[in-house]
Write a structure and sequence with these properties.
Number of helices: 5
Radius of gyration: 14 Å
Structural class: mainly alpha
Shape: globular
Number of strands: 2
Strand order of the largest sheet: 1-2
Strand content: 5-15%
Largest sheet: 2 strands, antiparallel
């Protein structure tokens, strides 16, 4: 894994689960790789196409992206919408970090 992806994953973990955040709480997150149409089951998606999800929203709960994608998207938005939100949160995190370092 490239260093830039390790840095991204660290930031995703700092942000916490994007689905829980929409419910007004923080939960530790694991990394969810977004599968696009050109990504088969045996091919890992790009590390750039990742969002932070807690285990319940990733693959353990009845509202999880892997077990009930339609409900997950109805409640929290599509994976691509969450990716855009996540990338904005990363920019905010980087800006805050830069302000504290000055």
């Amino acid at each position: 894994m490239k260093k830039e992806h390790k840095v991204r994953f660290d930031k995703l973990k700092q942000i916490g689960c994007v689905a829980c955040h929409k419910q007004g709480r923080f939960s530790d997150a694991i990394i969810h790789h977004i599968r696009k149409k050109n990504t088969g089951l045996s091919l890992r998606p790009s590390h750039d196409d990742t969002i932070p999800l807690c285990p319940m929203h990733h693959n353990m709960g009845n509202q999880s992206v892997h077990l009930n994608k339609k409900m997950f998207e109805r409640l929290f938005g599509t994976e691509l919408e969450l990716l855009k939100e996540t990338n904005l949160k990363i920019i905010q995190l980087e800006t805050e970090t830069q302000l504290w370092e000055k």
